[in-house]
Structures are given as C-alpha cells and as structure tokens.
Design a protein that fits this description.
It contains 18 helices and ten strands. It is an alpha/beta fold and 358 residues long. The protein is globular.
Length: 358
C-alpha cells in the first residue's frame, strides 16, 4: 500500500470526522460531516425524552453574511437531526420556491396561510379544504421529531412547483442554495418574552416536557432548547433585510395592522389585488377565522401528539393558542422578566434591531 494512498485515506477520515464535547473524535460512514462540527451535549433536559446536540457550521461556502461580523453560532437541535444535516444543506432550491422561516412560535402558521393565498390567486376553496401542512411543507420536522415518522425532506423535494416550504432552522443550517438561487423568503420575528411563554406550552404537548416553567425558561436563556439561540436566529435575517428576495416582518406589526402589511407582502411576490380583495383576505387571516378553520388550526396535530403517549389533561390545548401581543405579562414571572431584559440587551448589543412588545 503506497504512502500517498495512506495519506489520502487519513485525510478522508479527518474530513468526515465529528468532534465531540469530551474531546473524542469519531467518523460517520453514512454522512459527510465536513461542513459541521457536532458536539454531544450534557445539557439535555431531564424533563424530555429528546436528546440534543449542538451543531456548528464550518464550511462558509455560499454563506450570505460576513463571517467577520456575523459568524455562524452553535445551534441546539435534536440528536436525530445529525443524520439529516447534509441532506438539508444540499437540498435543491428552485427560484420559484417560497420559503417561510421563523423561530418557533413567531406567527409561522399565520404567515404560511397569508403567503400561500397571495401566491395562489386567493384560492379560498383550496385553503379551506386542503390542510395547510399539505400546502406548505415543514422541511425538517420529520428529521427532528419522533412524532412525525415520515421523511419530510423527501416530501418537500417531491412537492409540485411552485413549492412553499417552512422551516425553523437558523440561517447556518438552511440549504446553501438559498443564498445562490435566491427564491422569495419571508422571515418573521417575535419578541422573545411572548415566544418563551408560547414555546413552553408548545413543548409540553409536542416534546412531552414535564418540567417547571422556570426550568424551561432557564434552559431557553441558556440556549439549551431546540433551535436556540433565538436572538441570533433573528439577527442573521435582519442582516439580510435589504436583499430583494427577503421580506422581514414582525409578528407585532402584523397583529397591530395586518391589513396594512398585506400590500407589502403582495409587492414582494409581484402580486396585485383590489382593496376589496385585500379586505377579504385580512378577514380570512384573522385569529378567530384561523382558529376555527380545520385546515389551519392543527387540532388534528395536537390530538395525535397527545395520543402518542396516551396523555390526558391537555385536551384544551390549542395550537393557535391566544394570538396576542404581550401575553407574557400574564405568565412570565417577574424574576424572568428581568432576566429576559438583561439577556435581550446583551444579545442586541451593537445591532440596530429592536423587538416590539406592544
């Protein structure tokens, strides 16, 4: 065996290595991990069955931000996702795609329905008869959750064009072709205090979380919850807000006056509708209408999540829970209100982005 051959094998092994928290290095035969460092974390919550890892993007090819200013950060995500990292990174993107990206509990479902209707000539019949999950594919849910034993990445790949795809993945973990093909992207941000309360209730149902609210909030602030860190999630897309294919919205602005936001969304997608049509769309997208619409309220998803573990007592939980701004004032302990203020101020240092709370 030649020296050059041995050297080539050694380099290949190094290329596909994954560096672990305890300093051990292993190779994964089924995935090229050259683009990422995967760190096994001891920070897994004892209150869920989900094991987590931290993932750091190493390969900056096609990275859309200046890494000297906004370098990739380590992302907390389900351990299951290690098997899908490269597939998502190499996911084929088309110019006529529409991507909805948010941190969880930031108005994603609302934005999906709005965007789908604007791009489909206000087809209310289909919007009421075909579930939103079938019209707008959640890219990575099958790759992180045991509740969804289907390959949602393959589902998105096979979807008829033009595709609408949603994701909660932060910028470094999204398909790299997003930054070269440049399809239309809508990003929505929501203030972290309201996100925290809504995410806590969501985690109880969908991740079988049985810890205290205080424990969950501490884990969220320590970036130990799936998709964290949450502020950099927003700031990465804030840095892209002037890109012509990116529309940056906030949940609070949409709640304050959705009707005024709709023309901006239409312009983003080169669509034109009459004032009367936009009035009708605003009604369809109201929280009360969305909550009673079986195609958007996701009551079936909640029932399936509860049935999986034969859980009782959460039957009153609604995926579209309250849909208001400032609900954290009713549920966030004062101690954590102060902690979040300090956390947010530290995270936003040097940025001109500011969250809205009213």
């Amino acid at each position: 065996m030649s020296h050059s051959y041995l050297l080539a094998v050694l380099l290949l092994q190094q290329t596909i290595s994954v560096v672990y928290a305890r300093g051990q290095t292993h190779s994964l035969a089924n995935m090229s991990a050259a683009a990422f460092t995967i760190t096994e974390t001891d920070e897994q919550s004892v209150y869920t069955e989900r094991r987590q890892i931290k993932v750091l993007l190493n390969d900056l090819k096609d990275y859309p931000l200046d890494p000297a200013v906004r370098p990739p950060v380590s992302v907390t995500i389900s351990s299951k996702y290690r098997n899908y990292l490269q597939r998502v990174r190499d996911f084929q993107v088309f110019e006529d795609d529409v991507w909805i990206v948010t941190f969880p509990k930031s108005g994603t479902t609302w934005t999906e329905e709005m965007t789908w209707l604007i791009n489909h000539d206000l087809d209310y019949d289909t919007a009421r008869s075909i579930k939103l999950n079938s019209r707008s594919t959640f890219l990575e849910i099958g790759a992180i959750s045991e509740l969804f034993p289907i390959d949602t990445i393959a589902t998105a790949e096979r979807s008829a064009r033009p595709r609408q795809i949603k994701s909660h993945l932060p910028l470094p973990l999204l398909p790299r072709q997003l930054w070269t093909v440049k399809p239309k992207i809508v990003y929505v941000a929501r203030n972290p205090k309201d996100v925290a309360i809504s995410f806590y209730h969501h985690y109880r149902v969908f991740v079988s979380y049985n810890g205290t609210k205080e424990t969950f909030l501490n884990e969220l602030l320590a970036d130990q919850v799936t998709y964290c860190p949450m502020v950099s999630h927003v700031l990465d897309f804030w840095a892209l807000k002037h890109e012509p294919n990116v529309l940056f919205l906030t949940y609070e602005t949409m709640k304050r006056n959705l009707r005024a936001v709709l023309p901006d969304v239409c312009r983003h997608f080169n669509k034109t509708y009459s004032e009367a049509q936009l009035d009708e769309l605003a009604v369809h997208l109201s929280f009360d209408e969305m909550k009673k619409n079986p195609a958007t309220n996701k009551d079936d998803v909640v029932r399936n999540a509860l049935a999986k573990d034969n859980r009782i007592g959460d039957e009153q939980f609604k995926f579209l829970r309250k849909g208001i701004v400032g609900d954290y004032r009713n549920e966030l302990p004062e101690e954590f209100n102060v902690k979040f203020d300090r956390f947010i101020a530290e995270q936003l240092a040097g940025s001109d982005f500011r969250y809205e709370y009213d």
